[in-house]
Amino acid sequence: MIARLRINWVILRTCIEERLVYRADFAFATLVRFLPIVTQIFLWGAIFAVHSDQPKQKLNGYSYDDMIAYFLLAMVARAFSSMPGLATGVARDVREGTIKKFLIQPVDFLGYLFWHRVAHKLVYYIVAVGPFALVFFLCRDYFSGWPDGFTIVGFLISLPIAFLIGFLIESMIGLVSFWFLEVSSLIFVYMMLNYFLSGHMIPLDWLPAPVNAWVIYLPFKYLAYFPASIMLGHYTHAQLINELLIAGGWILILAVANRVMFIRGVRRYGAFGG
């Protein structure tokens, strides 16, 4: 157990150092991601037809202020749940044979991927915490006020849940490469579905009843919609506890699926290349 903890700490520290090598490029790329906020504000302003001489309209229960607040909160959740390059990296390791080093060394491949992503997020938020604080300060008028303490705690819990579900889904897609060496098409389909089904594009309660009835039971909503909806007060305390338990169930299911796919994939792995 102590040896495993020591290995995980070395992985985390090494990955953080790796990220900090190109810290200027990493910081610039992080700051650029905040530019779409301006376009989103103008876009939703046009959609809601917000003018000084016209009362604010509502669409599907959302006012213009609600929509901007939702988008900003969803952006925070997506910062936790997005895993750029994870699935493609796993597929590349399998295709090129570099995954062999994890099969002959006392390093768990899935554990390495996890701590590598933890390191990425830690460095990302060290850089992004300032811009996030500035953005929310400038956009504070879009929020109606702070929710109660229980709701805030639920929101804070939902962020690592978003990270875990996002990580497990993408790593599972990458592990498909044990059976199909080229998974770029699958990744593209997933990214399209993720953008829509996670609530990043529009709130999921905007969807018509037949679609919303099954979308809300999928794990994708925990990537963006769920954390944002918590802070907007869309859940009672009882509903929030229930949703957190369901999210925990999805984490367990996805974790088991990842482990089973990895074990079975290694059994049929041919170690090509490398």
TrEMBL record:
Give the species. Answer: Symmachiella dynata
Pfam families registered for this protein in UniProt: ABC2_membrane_6 (PF06182)
Q: Which UniProt keywords apply?
A: Membrane, Transmembrane, Transmembrane helix
InterPro entries assigned: ABC-2_transporter-like
Question: Does the keyword Transferase feature in the UniProt annotation?
Answer: no
- PANTHER family recorded: SLR1174 PROTEIN, SLR1174 PROTEIN-RELATED
- This chain belongs to the protein called ABC transporter permease
Residues annotated as transmembrane: 20-47, 67-91, 122-143, 149-169, 176-193, 213-232, 244-262
